[in-house]
Recover the amino acids of this structure.
């Protein structure tokens, strides 16, 4: 083992792999290394969602999607496939669109999370929301929060140069009702306003 | 999903030390690993979160391109030097997955994503890669998406990464590190193993070893490189067949020629037979057609995937035409 590795880590690694956890049981040189890397039953994490803080105690397996819906009570974000393939669970983390179903909530400490509930501060709708209403950008509405989160990010990214470009950069959001033409029209419209 | 311990080190050396423990996996963007955890295909006792260790720089200069392992797919694809000097990398990445997945997925994780063979990802089936010795139902079953090159009687799964195909054409080198060992460099062409009798062992990576960076040399051919991906739908789909071509053409003559293909091999597949047929030749349409007709020498289709032989030649031809136009 490299001499650069700290003694704490050597101790812990040879004891079977359990090493410091930044949020719970902060280990240091004076703490005896735990016997093995037992799974944590629950860990503390504070989610910062739409500007509010949610201190949670969660199983480390919890996805951000489940934490938002079942613990923070924010059910606007939808679960479609739960495997990264549909985009229904799209949220913004630190300003970028990502999939909450493939994100462990325990890895989100300190990050700024935005969901459909917080896309626009206050009572007014975000321009993409208004445009979806205007263009009928949905039928059943299940994919819609994800579509809108993705569309708002797409405009910020500057991928709104043409309908073809919008379609390509919206390809991560599937709509089972097939509202695609109206979704593209809504995003095109909203991008002109922005 | 099985319960695991989540370790969140903030230093690379700590991550390496923890990663060296038994039954431990690194988690980068999590876009592949989370799926495999949810489906109980991967059941590690411990995850080492790589987010805190940094390692996300993208550096391009006269000596080449260095992509640190935690650089995000989207950031690499958008990087202006990458787009200008190594366009095949940006094109392969932008043809991968979706914008959301690319914002999460990392360069290291992308190269180590597991196959999309449906049997591998469903624990209700036997699979030699997931459970060595249990058998391969794909060889006589659903194999339309699977490999025609490099397979064995034990496994014919394709490697699904688009980026790996581009990097194979460009002779990229992977920088690997493991606690206690000196860092080492392995060319990507030697990184992936053929399945043989041990399809569960996919790379030369040692237990606990991490990819820390990918290094890509600069070249005239890299500046004139191109990626073509053919798939069942226009976007957000894995390749049926893809081709990566890098060409240095002077006075109409092919000097430096690199051709690699995806979707056809059990690992990213270099096509030396096509390269040799063009080196030093005038790159007119007849020469391109003749050379691409050699693509996939030694292919062994399994049944449903026989169409890939023809599709491969056509994909290579079209990519050569684009890059030499
Ligand atoms: C719906 C969907 C569609 C997709 N379509 C495509 C596509 O068309 N083309 C394509 O190429 N890919 C596609 N992908 C795959 C995607 O690109 C990969 O999942 C992603 O690149 C993996 O990166 P990650 O950082 O999320 O890896 P993770 O999921 O975090 O890790 C993947 C594996 O790599 C290991 N690992 C990660 N980083 C390191 C490291 N630095 N050193 C050692 N081991 C490491 C992990 O232990 C794990 O085994 C798709 C994925 C999804 C979900
Ligand atoms: S092709 Fe490979 S991954 Fe697919 S079922 Fe056979 S052994 Fe498993
Ligand atoms: S629920 Fe996350 S992509 Fe489908
Ligand atoms: S509106 Fe029904 S899935 Fe899109």
């Amino acid at each position: 083992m490299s001499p650069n590795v700290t003694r704490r880590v050597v101790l812990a690694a040879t004891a079977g792999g359990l090493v410091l956890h930044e949020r719970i049981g902060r280990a240091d040189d004076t703490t005896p290394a735990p016997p093995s890397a037992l799974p944590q039953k629950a860990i503390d994490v504070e989610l910062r969602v739409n500007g509010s803080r949610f201190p949670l105690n969660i199983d480390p397996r919890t996805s951000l999607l489940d934490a938002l819906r079942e613990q923070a009570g924010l059910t606007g974000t939808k679960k479609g496939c739960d495997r990264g393939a549909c985009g229904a669970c799209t949220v913004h983390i630190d300003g970028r669109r990502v999939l909450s179903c493939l994100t462990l909530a325990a890895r989100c400490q300190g990050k700024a999370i935005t969901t459909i509930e917080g896309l626009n501060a206050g009572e007014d709708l975000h321009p993409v929301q208004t445009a979806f209403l205007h263009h009928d950008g949905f039928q059943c509405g299940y994919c819609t929060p994800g579509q809108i989160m993705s569309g708002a990010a797409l405009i910020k990214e500057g991928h709104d140069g043409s309908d073809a470009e919008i379609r390509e950069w919206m390809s991560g959001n599937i709509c089972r009702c097939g509202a695609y033409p109206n979704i593209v029209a809504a995003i095109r419209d909203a991008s002109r306003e922005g | 999903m099985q319960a695991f311990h989540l370790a969140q080190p903030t230093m690379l050396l700590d991550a390496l030390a923890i990663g060296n423990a038994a039954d431990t996996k690194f988690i980068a963007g999590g876009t592949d690993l989370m799926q495999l955890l949810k489906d109980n295909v991967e059941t590690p006792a411990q995850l080492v979160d790589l987010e805190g260790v940094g390692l996300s720089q993208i550096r391009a200069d006269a000596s080449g391109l260095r992509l640190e392992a935690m650089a995000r797919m989207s950031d690499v694809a958008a990087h202006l030097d990458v787009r200008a000097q190594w366009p095949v990398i940006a094109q392969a990445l932008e043809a991968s997955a979706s914008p959301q997945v690319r914002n999460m997925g990392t360069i290291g994780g992308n190269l180590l994503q597991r196959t999309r063979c449906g049997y591998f990802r469903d624990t209700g089936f036997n699979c030699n890669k997931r459970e060595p010795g249990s058998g391969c139902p794909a060889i006589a079953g659903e194999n339309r998406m699977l490999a025609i090159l490099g397979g064995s009687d034990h496994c014919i799964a394709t490697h699904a990464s688009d980026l790996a195909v581009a990097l194979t054409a460009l002779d990229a080198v992977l920088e690997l590190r493991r606690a206690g060992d000196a860092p080492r460099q392995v060319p990507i062409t030697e990184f992936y193993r053929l399945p043989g009798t041990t399809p569960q062992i996919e790379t030369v990576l040692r237990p606990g070893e991490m990819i820390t960076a990918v290094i890509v040399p600069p070249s005239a051919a890299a500046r004139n490189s191109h990626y073509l991906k053919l798939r069942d739908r226009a976007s957000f789909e894995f390749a049926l067949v893809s081709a990566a071509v890098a060409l240095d053409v002077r006075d109409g003559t092919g000097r430096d020629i690199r051709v690699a293909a995806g979707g056809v091999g059990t690992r990213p597949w270099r096509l030396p037979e096509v390269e040799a047929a063009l080196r030093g030749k005038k790159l007119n349409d007849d020469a391109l057609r003749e050379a691409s007709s050699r693509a996939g020498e030694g292919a062994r289709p399994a049944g449903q995937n026989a169409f890939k032989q023809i599709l491969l030649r056509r994909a290579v031809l079209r990519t050569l035409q684009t890059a030499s136009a």
